[in-house]
């Protein structure tokens, strides 16, 4: 009997590349689909097929998921900026963030025979929009405020409606603030923790748009990848609804960024950079100033998953990865490196 074939869409992205590393350690067949060829993780146990494709082009989605028993939809529109935000009316963003879900449903609906394929979609906890609650548990009414969250919610509803119609067996995993780097990381993390680590390594002050009391549920990337694979393993039990992922702990960003400054100082031998409050930019949203903690007990009970990486270790790995990256860049420029970082 052949092992299951898993089509991983968005295999070079921040989330997708981590899921690829997790799947590569299993005795499965993986079709890694992305605009540019995905690097096969070293020592892969899985049979990894690399497929470079623009999924927005006609016919590419159907070809990408042909014969797949499982589909992980981890695609994300990128405008080559430092953030995932999109502007209202951005048709290119809507085409990726929502349109690919419609294309996936159309491709799977055209199949004949066999059980409905499993589909795991990576959404966002922010799809709920402003709730006035400090702790989210997945029972909130969805009232997304920004274009990105509206697009992700629309995609989720397309997939869950197709599940209700028997086209597929789908679930949506809503992600909190995911961060960090682990062994073998190949994709750039554009979130606040890594962005501020890069500033500190460059000797620049770490900046916040608030007083540091805002809380975030920070989930380490490798733990997130394990959660997505748990979603595949328990697809039938999870089908037909969304589930929140998180650690259950809301961390104040001020102390987190102070930790970053100290870890960078230990790595470079320089004094810690200051952590300062600055005026928020024009594109800041209300959600940037709201505290969020995730109650993921429902997902944990359904799958047995739990975060496994202690936060200090996850933060240290992230700083070390970015410091190594900075050192390699400095050597490439022929710069003098002092204290480990130029």
UniProtKB/TrEMBL annotation:
<dbReference type="InterPro" id="IPR036291">
    <property type="entry name" value="NAD(P)-bd_dom_sf"/>
</dbReference>
<dbReference type="Pfam" id="PF01370">
    <property type="entry name" value="Epimerase"/>
</dbReference>
<protein>
    <recommendedName>
        <fullName>NAD-dependent epimerase/dehydratase domain-containing protein</fullName>
    </recommendedName>
</protein>
<feature type="region of interest" description="Disordered">
    <location>
        <begin position="122"/>
        <end position="145"/>
    </location>
</feature>
<feature type="domain" description="NAD-dependent epimerase/dehydratase">
    <location>
        <begin position="7"/>
        <end position="246"/>
    </location>
</feature>
<dbReference type="InterPro" id="IPR001509">
    <property type="entry name" value="Epimerase_deHydtase"/>
</dbReference>
<dbReference type="InterPro" id="IPR050177">
    <property type="entry name" value="Lipid_A_modif_metabolic_enz"/>
</dbReference>
């Amino acid at each position: 009997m052949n092992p299951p074939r898993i089509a991983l869409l968005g295999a070079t992205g921040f989330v997708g590349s981590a899921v690829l590393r997790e799947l590569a350690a299993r005795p499965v067949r993986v079709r890694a689909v992305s605009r540019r060829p995905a690097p096969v993780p070293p020592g892969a146990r899985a049979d990894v097929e690399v497929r470079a494709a623009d999924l927005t082009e006609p016919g590419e989605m159907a070809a990408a998921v042909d014969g797949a028993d499982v589909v992980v939809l981890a695609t994300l529109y990128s405008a080559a900026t430092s953030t995932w935000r999109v502007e209202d009316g951005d048709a290119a963003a809507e085409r990726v963030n929502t349109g690919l879900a419609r294309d996936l449903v159309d491709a799977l609906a055209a199949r004949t025979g066999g059980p409905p394929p499993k589909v795991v979609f990576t959404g966002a906890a922010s799809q709920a929009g402003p709730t006035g609650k400090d702790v989210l548990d997945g029972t909130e009414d969805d009232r997304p405020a920004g274009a990105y969250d509206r697009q992700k919610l629309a995609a989720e509803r397309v997939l869950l409606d197709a599940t209700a119609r028997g086209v597929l067996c789908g679930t949506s995993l809503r992600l909190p603030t995911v961060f960090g780097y682990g062994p073998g990381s190949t994709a750039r993390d554009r979130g606040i923790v890594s962005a501020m680590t890069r500033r500190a390594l460059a000797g620049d002050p770490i900046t916040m748009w608030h007083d540091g009391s805002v809380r975030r549920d920070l989930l380490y990337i490798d733990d997130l990848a394990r959660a997505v694979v748990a979603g595949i393993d328990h697809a039938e039990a999870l089908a037909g609804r969304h589930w929140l992922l998180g650690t259950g702990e809301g961390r104040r960003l001020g102390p987190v960024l102070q930790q970053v400054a100290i870890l960078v100082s230990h790595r470079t031998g320089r004094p810690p950079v200051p952590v300062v409050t600055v005026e928020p930019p024009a594109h800041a949203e209300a959600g940037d100033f709201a505290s969020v903690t995730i109650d993921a007990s429902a997902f944990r009970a359904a799958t047995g998953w739990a975060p496994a990486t202690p936060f200090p270790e996850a933060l240290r790995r992230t700083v070390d990865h970015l410091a190594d990256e900075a050192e390699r860049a400095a050597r490439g420029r022929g710069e003098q490196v002092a204290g480990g970082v130029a």
